Amino acid sequence: SQRTILVATVSGLVTSRCPSFSCSPFNDRPMCRICHEGSSQEDLLSPCECTGTLGTIHRSCLEHWLSSSNTSYCELCHFRFAVERKPRPLVEWLRNPGPQHEKRTLFGDMVCFLFITPLATISGWLCLRGAVDHLHFSSRLEAVGLIALTVALFTIYLFWTLVSFRYHCRLYNEWRRTNQRVILLVPKSVSVPSNQQSLLGLHSVKRNSKETIV
Ligand SMILES: [Zn+2]
Ligand SMILES: [Zn+2]
């Protein structure tokens, strides 16, 4: 809004000094309101009800903004864009699951799982074999003790796996919800042709200068 006021003030000054609108710098080059670049790299769109310098935007800039802000409407005029949201693949999350600490936790838990699974399996198998041997030599107490140990080992292993899995599932679902690929469903005709852009610029100067007077 500070920028809007500045633009309004500057354009007000320009229009009050110039007899015609031709010398206003805002007429010459319409730019994207997010990256402030012109239409040389990518066509500018005017997809919402905003006009003037705030009315033009690149498709990619808008899609990126809608994706990162997790909204589907213009933050200024509250126009609701027609968008299609596509969830990103799981591989992308595994590669970059978010903040640094989440990345570390996911990596650590995956390494732990890969180490603990064979370890738990081997220990369980050895315990059971020991129990069978003890039963064979009719020392029941040791056999029962070893079976109890195996059960305890597997309970702890399953509990840890379940808790970690649920934790990462929750993080993944949250990531999936907030990191969707946004595709703007704007027909090509909405894209602003160059002669109309200068008219839009003119309109904004008029509008802004009116705002300055008020
Ligand atoms: Zn842009
Ligand atoms: Zn708008």
Describe this structure in words.
It is a single chain. The protein has 214 residues and is mainly α. It folds into two domains: 2-69 and 190-213, Herpes Virus-1; 91-178. Helices cover 62% and strands 6% of the residues. The strands form two sheets. The chain has a two-stranded antiparallel sheet with strand order 1-2. Strands 3-4 form a two-stranded antiparallel ribbon. Helix 1 crosses helix 7 and helix 5 runs antiparallel to helix 6. The longest helix has 39 residues, at 140-178. The two termini are 16 Å apart. Mean pLDDT is 77; it is low at 5-25 and 195-214. Residues 48-50, 74, 76-77, 79 line the site of one zinc ion.
**Spatial arrangement of strands, main beta sheet:** 1-2
Count the domains: 2
Largest sheet: 2 strands, antiparallel
Secondary-structure element sequence?
HHEEHEHHHEH
Low-confidence stretches: 5-25, 195-214
- What is the count of DSSP helices, taking H or I runs of 4+ residues? 7
Q: Rg to the nearest angstrom?
A: 32 Å
